[in-house]
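Predict the 3D structure for this chain.
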Amino acid sequence: MATITRNDFAERLRARFGLTSADAYKLVDVVFDEIRESLINGEEVKFTNFGSFKILDKTARMGRNPKTGESAVITARRVATFRPCHEFRRRVAKK
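Done. Predicted structure below.
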């Protein structure tokens, strides 16, 4: 299974749109910075025909250490989630 990196993404943008490498990298950074800042500010980020990103606040709960079986408290935390839209899921299922 292949992995697409930030560099791969920037290079694809450069080749597709004729951008300079510097502009392509800048564009990738700006897009991800905007998504990150929106999520940090509590906003949901939605892309039509792709999906949405949002932050979930998870409460503390009891869990266990899978290695020892010992009970442990899992602390409250915020997590970023991605939910693909129906069109995205349909296209992935076709492959």
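The first strand starts at residue 45 and ends at 47.
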